[in-house]
Structure formats: structure tokens, C-alpha cells
């Protein structure tokens, strides 16, 4: 019998900005599109955007505070923050989030894996716990994609949104609800142009100010992204299920990265996930990149929609290209004052 | 629904009929995706589904609105002829490195 520690999710939290943008609201109303077009192509009816001045770190702190409260305010010894939209190019956002949460001088770092970021951050936190390097890890995924979205670009403006989700991992046993069973990650850098912000990095610092707004915002090759996302998430899900020995019909909760409802449906169909095990919130929340999975998770926890211990599968795909899947048992989250 | 189809064209026709609620009688091989009023995402969805079913790699960058169902079926047949011994699904799994599995 193994006595190696296992990481267990003991807290979940989220934060959505208050500004709701419906398909008929500005600036989307000025685009060459309609509510029907957006809904039929993406499944999205509304999304949340931050007000100017609100940062990724602000959302991260609120989501993390909620997760820590539900976990009973444990002593945290690592903070991992997944984001594509850090508060600054440098420094990382995680140390500031840790400081604002009163977590002292714990190690804190950002993970940049686009929409797969939460699965990468969760795998990193899980590895620290399994290695015995940390007893309690705060994993946050937070995005303000509206800050890198060109409002005149139909392909991205209708899709991307803002939000944050967080989970707390603690050392525990494999029999507990919330135990991480396995993680699996992958990347394919030959597909680095599927979704890219061209200007502002070291490749094109643009100190001369020659870039356009479009160059400074996220551009996406929609159909190609669709194809790669479906193929990779399907393969990743199948491989992980085989790895852990779970028949797909034993999975009671499946949460894919909320990229696009048609992508989610296709992946779930190909993997063979039961209809009643498919969960999402893209219709109301849009695509919040790395934050999407913990946002769905927190909603389900709040509604007590999944029984603790239920076999659960997360899968995600993002720019880079990156992908990741996580097999876990659904956590038992207690409410603490 | 997958094993009863004798040809790729038959599979494509039945897939489109089921996925988009189209009458099978309207899905002759000469029909283009544009004439069926299917958007670009629908075409990618179909390519991904076909690839998964036949365990082949179909290059969906070659998809176009004026492509006919017969031309798509010919692409499938070509890919089937060129398919290596290792299936597409196995190949995809090989690139997917497991990071950590509980003992």
C-alpha cells in the first residue's frame, strides 16, 4: 500500500465581473453579426467583461478568497496562477495575489498555457503535493480577455470573456472525495499561430508604436482551432480514461474548457460521455480561457449538482497549442464562516 | 450507426442527415456544402467525425464550401488507401504523454 500523499481539492471559489454583455449589446451590436449567428456558432448568449481598471489579479484575489474560506482558511505553502492576461508582462501576477491574500512569502508563480492553463496549474500543484514539497496549494485561473480583445473582430469579440476560478489542494488520501487521480498534459508548438497576440512580446516589442489594435489583441484561426481542439481534447480524454481504467460511462461529471458549445458537444459525443454527465456554463459566461473549468466547477458546487466522490473528467485545449486532462473524484466542499 | 455503411459516401450522407436533420434523398454526391447551407464549422465537424470514425487524418484545411459530397468521399478513400498500420487514434494517443497517475 502506498503512503505517498495524494492531493485533494478542499475548496473552490470563483469571481465573475458584474458587467454583462449580451449578444445584442454594444460593442457587439455594431459588428456584422446577429444574436442568432453568435448563438448558433458558439452557444453563447452573454458574457462578463470587467470595467476599466479591474485587473486579472483583482478577479484572482476574489476567487481565491472564496476558495480559501471554503477550505477553512488553511496555511497555504504555494500559489500557482494560470493566466493569459497577467497584470503586467513582468513581474508575475501570482506573488501580488498571494500578498493581497495575506499568504506571506510563500512561493508563487504564473503558468502560461492559454485556455489549458487550469489543467497545467492543477497538475503543477498536484505534483508539489505528491512530492511532499507542499501540504496545501492554492491554484487560481484568472483572465481579463476583454483587455486583449479587439471589439471590431467578430471572431473573438463575441467569444472571449473575463472571470476567475480557484481551488485549494491539500495533502490527503486517494479514497477521499476530491482526490486527484491522474493528470495528463501535452503541447504542439508547430500550431503556435492558432491563437496569437502578435505585438508586445520580445518577437515584436513595437517600441516604435507601429502596431495596430488588431496586432495587440488576440487573433484566432477559428475553424483550425475548432479542429485541433476537438481532436486533441478527444484523444487526451480517451487516453486518460484508459490510463486510470475508467469506462467512459462511469464518468459522472465531464467539464471541458468552455471554448464553444459545438466543440464541447463534439468532444463529448466522440468520447461517449453520457448526456447527464456533461456540464457547462458557456451560454451565460462565454469563453473565459483558463478560468472556465473552475468557474463551472464552482457553480456546480454551489448548486450541489454533483455528488461528492463522483468520477470526474476535466479536459482543455488552448493556444500554443496546449492541452490537458485531469481525472479526479468530485470534492466534498464544506461551508466555513 | 457506423458499421453498417458500405462506402464513405454512404457514411457522409447518413452523418449529414442525422447531424443536420436533412432528408437523405437530398444528399446526392453532387451536392456541395454551400448548397446544403452548411457553415464552415459544420464542415470541420464533419471532417473531425469522419477522421475519428475511419481512424484516418483528413486535412480540414482542404475543406471548402464548393466541395461536393463525392469529392469528400474520394478524400476519405484516398486517406484509407494511404493509412499506415498504426491507426489515427493510436497515433494521437502516442503524442499524449501521461504526467502523473496514482499507483
TrEMBL record, chain A:
<dbReference type="InterPro" id="IPR004655">
    <property type="entry name" value="FabH"/>
</dbReference>
<feature type="domain" description="Beta-ketoacyl-[acyl-carrier-protein] synthase III C-terminal">
    <location>
        <begin position="241"/>
        <end position="330"/>
    </location>
</feature>
<comment type="similarity">
    <text>Belongs to the thiolase-like superfamily. FabH family.</text>
</comment>
<dbReference type="InterPro" id="IPR013751">
    <property type="entry name" value="ACP_syn_III_N"/>
</dbReference>
<keyword id="KW-0808">Transferase</keyword>
<comment type="pathway">
    <text>Lipid metabolism.</text>
</comment>
<keyword id="KW-0443">Lipid metabolism</keyword>
<keyword id="KW-0012">Acyltransferase</keyword>
<keyword id="KW-0963">Cytoplasm</keyword>
<keyword id="KW-0275">Fatty acid biosynthesis</keyword>
<dbReference type="InterPro" id="IPR016039">
    <property type="entry name" value="Thiolase-like"/>
</dbReference>
<dbReference type="Pfam" id="PF08541">
    <property type="entry name" value="ACP_syn_III_C"/>
</dbReference>
<feature type="domain" description="Beta-ketoacyl-[acyl-carrier-protein] synthase III N-terminal">
    <location>
        <begin position="109"/>
        <end position="189"/>
    </location>
</feature>
<keyword id="KW-0276">Fatty acid metabolism</keyword>
<dbReference type="Pfam" id="PF08545">
    <property type="entry name" value="ACP_syn_III"/>
</dbReference>
<dbReference type="InterPro" id="IPR013747">
    <property type="entry name" value="ACP_syn_III_C"/>
</dbReference>
<protein>
    <submittedName>
        <fullName>3-oxoacyl-ACP synthase</fullName>
    </submittedName>
</protein>
<keyword id="KW-0444">Lipid biosynthesis</keyword>
From TrEMBL, chain B:
<feature type="compositionally biased region" description="Basic and acidic residues">
    <location>
        <begin position="80"/>
        <end position="93"/>
    </location>
</feature>
<protein>
    <recommendedName>
        <fullName>Carrier domain-containing protein</fullName>
    </recommendedName>
</protein>
<feature type="domain" description="Carrier">
    <location>
        <begin position="3"/>
        <end position="80"/>
    </location>
</feature>
<dbReference type="Pfam" id="PF00550">
    <property type="entry name" value="PP-binding"/>
</dbReference>
<feature type="region of interest" description="Disordered">
    <location>
        <begin position="80"/>
        <end position="103"/>
    </location>
</feature>
<dbReference type="InterPro" id="IPR009081">
    <property type="entry name" value="PP-bd_ACP"/>
</dbReference>
<dbReference type="InterPro" id="IPR036736">
    <property type="entry name" value="ACP-like_sf"/>
</dbReference>
Amino acid at each position: 500500500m502506498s503512503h505517498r500523499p495524494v492531493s485533494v481539492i478542499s475548496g473552490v471559489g470563483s469571481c465573475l465581473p458584474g458587467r454583462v454583455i449580451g449578444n445584442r449589446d454594444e460593442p457587439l451590436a455594431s459588428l456584422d453579426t446577429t444574436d442568432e449567428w453568435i448563438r448558433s456558432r458558439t452557444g453563447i448568449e452573454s458574457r462578463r467583461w470587467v470595467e476599466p481598471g479591474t485587473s486579472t489579479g483583482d478577479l484572482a484575489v476574489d476567487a481565491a478568497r472564496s476558495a480559501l474560506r471554503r477550505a477553512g482558511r488553511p496555511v497555504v505553502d504555494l500559489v500557482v496562477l494560470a493566466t493569459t492576461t497577467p497584470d503586467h508582462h513582468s513581474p508575475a501576477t501570482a506573488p501580488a495575489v498571494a500578498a493581497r491574500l495575506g499568504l506571506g512569502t510563500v512561493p508563487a508563480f504564473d503558468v502560461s498555457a492559454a485556455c489549458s492553463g487550469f489543467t497545467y496549474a492543477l497538475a503543477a500543484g498536484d505534483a508539489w503535493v505528491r512530492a511532499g514539497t507542499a501540504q496545501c496549494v492554492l491554484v487560481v485561473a484568472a483572465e481579463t480577455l476583454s483587455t486583449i480583445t479587439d471589439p471590431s473582430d467578430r471572431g473573438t469579440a463575441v467569444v472571449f470573456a473575463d472571470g476567475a476560478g480557484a481551488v485549494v489542494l491539500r495533502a490527503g488520501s486517494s479514497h477521499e472525495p476530491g482526490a486527484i487521480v491522474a493528470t495528463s498534459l501535452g503541447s504542439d508548438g508547430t500550431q503556435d499561430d492558432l491563437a496569437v497576440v502578435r505585438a508586445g512580446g520580445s518577437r515584436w516589442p513595437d517600441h516604435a508604436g507601429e502596431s495596430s489594435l488588431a496586432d495587440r489583441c488576440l487573433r484566432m484561426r477559428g475553424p483550425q482551432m475548432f479542429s485541433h481542439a476537438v481532436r486533441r481534447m478527444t484523444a487526451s480524454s480517451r487516453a486518460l480514461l484508459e490510463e486510470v481504467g475508467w469506462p467512459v460511462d462511469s464518468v459522472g461529471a465531464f467539464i471541458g474548457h468552455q471554448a464553444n458549445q459545438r466543440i464541447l458537444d463534439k468532444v463529448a459525443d466522440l468520447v461517449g460521455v453520457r448526456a447527464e454527465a456533461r456540464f457547462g456554463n458557456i451560454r451565460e459566461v462565454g469563453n473565459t480561457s483558463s478560468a472556465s473549468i473552475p468557474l463551472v466547477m464552482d457553480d456546480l458546487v454551489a448548486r450541489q449538482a454533483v455528488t461528492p466522490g463522483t468520477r470526474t473528467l476535466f479536459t482543455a485545449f488552448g493556444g500554443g497549442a496546449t492541452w490537458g486532462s485531469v481525472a479526479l473524484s468530485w470534492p466534498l466542499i464544506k461551508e466555513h464562516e | 450507426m457506423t458499421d453498417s455503411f458500405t462506402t464513405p459516401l454512404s457514411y457522409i450522407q447518413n452523418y449529414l442527415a442525422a447531424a443536420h436533420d436533412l432528408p437523405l434523398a437530398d444528399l446526392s454526391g453532387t451536392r456541395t456544402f454551400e448548397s446544403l447551407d452548411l457553415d464552415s464549422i459544420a464542415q470541420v465537424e464533419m471532417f473531425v467525425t469522419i477522421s475519428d470514425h475511419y481512424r484516418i487524418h483528413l486535412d480540414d484545411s482542404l475543406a471548402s464550401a464548393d466541395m461536393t459530397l463525392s469529392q469528400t468521399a474520394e478524400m476519405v478513400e484516398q486517406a484509407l488507401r494511404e493509412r499506415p498500420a498504426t491507426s489515427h487514434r493510436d497515433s494521437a494517443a502516442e503524442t499524449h504523454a501521461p504526467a502523473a497517475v496514482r499507483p
